[in-house]
Amino acid sequence: MTNQGVREAADLLRRARRAVVFSGAGMSAESGVPTFRDALTGLWQQFDAQALATPQAFHDDPALVWGWYEWRRTAVARARPNAGHVAVAAIEARVPHAVVVTQNVDDLHERAGSVDPVHLHGSLFAPRCSACARPARAADGPGEEPTDGRRVTPPSCGHCSAPIRPGVVWFGEALPEDALDTAVDAASSCDVLLTVGTSGLVYPAAEIPQVAARFGAAVIQVNPQETPLDAVAAVNLRGPAAEVLPALVRAAWEAEDRA
Ligand code: BJW
Ligand code: ZN
Which candidate, 23, 24, 191, 250, has a CA 20 to 30 Å from the CA of 169? Predict the structure, then answer.
C-alpha cells in the first residue's frame, strides 16, 4: 500500500455522499476466522470448503456438514471484531449514506457497530428447517466444539421433523432476494465502493463492485493479493484490512477533526 494510494482513496471517501463497503472473508481473517479458500484442518482436512458448502454435501452427510458449521459458529462466537471492522463502522458514521454489504456469515460487522449490514450469503446464527424452511431456534452460547471438529447430528424441526440446516447460501442456491436487491440498488447509486478481503470469484456477489464501476462509482480495493476485481478498481491498496482501513479513516478524516 502506498501513501499516494491511501491519500487518493481517502479523498474519494471524504467527498462521497453515498458509499458501499463490500466485504469478504479477508475482512475477518485478522479476527482469527479462516478465509473460505484457506485449507481446512482437523476432521475436514480431506475436503475443501467448496465441497462442504453444497446442498448435496448436507444431504449425503448432514452430521459432517452440521458439525463443520457448529465448529465455525463456535470459532466466530469466540472471535472479536478487528480494527478493520471498527474502521468500516467509522466510515459508515462519516459518509452521509453508507451501506455495508457482506458475503460473510459471521456477525463481526454488527459487533463492531455497523448498522444492519446486508448479508448476501446468510448467517451462521439463523438456522432453519431443511424441508419447511421455518426458522429454528439458534443454539445458546458460543458452542463447545473441539479444535479438530467433530460430527454433530443436526437437531430436528419441531414442525415436520426434517433436519435443521445452517441459514447460509450454498452453491447452486439463490441469494436472498431482498438482500441482493438492496446490494444492487446501493451499488448502482453510490459514488464510492470499497471492496475488502474478497477473492471476487463467487457470483452473483462478485458482480456488486462491477455494477458500481459500470454506474460510474470509484472502486477502491483492499486486499494483500491481486484479484479479478483489480480490473475495475480505481485504487488498489495491497495490504491487510486491519492495517489499511484504519489508515484510510485517519487519512480521510483526522486532519478535518484537528482543524
Ligand atoms: C485478505 C486478508 C486480510 C486474506 N485483509 N484481505 C457466474 C459465473 C460462474 C459461476 C457462477 C456464476 N453464477 C453463479 C455461479 C455458480 C456459483 C459460483 O459463483 N461459482 C464460482 C465458484 C465459479 N454461484 C452460486 O452457486 C450462487 N448461487 C447462484 O448463482 O444461484 C443461482 C440460482 C438462481 C435462482 C435459483 C437457484 C439458483 C451461490 C453462491 C453461494 C456462496 N456461498 C459461500 C458459502 C457460504 C456459507 C459458508 O460460509 O459456508 O459463500 S461460498 C464462499 O465464497 C462463501 C463466501 O462468502 C464466498 C466468497 O468468498 P470470499 O469472501 O471472497 O473469500 P475467499 O476465501 O475466496 O477470499 C478471501 C480473500 O481475502 C482473498 O482474496 C485474500 O487475498 C483476502 N485476504 N487475508 C484483506 N487480512
Ligand atoms: Zn420443518
Answer: 191
Ligand nearest to the CA of 36: 1
Cis amide prior to 204 (ω within 30 degrees): yes
Torsion angle (degrees, nearest 10) of CA 214, 220, 221, 226: 70
pLDDT (tens digit per residue) in 52-67: 999 999 999 999 999 9
CA of 26 to the centre of ligand 1 (A): 12
pLDDT tens digits, one per residue of 93-105? 999 999 999 999 9
Q: Is the pTM of this model over 0.85?
A: yes
Q: Round to the nearest angstrom and report the end-to-end CA distance of the chain.
A: 26
What does the chain come to in residues? 259
- Positive or negative CA dihedral for 22, 26, 31, 33? positive
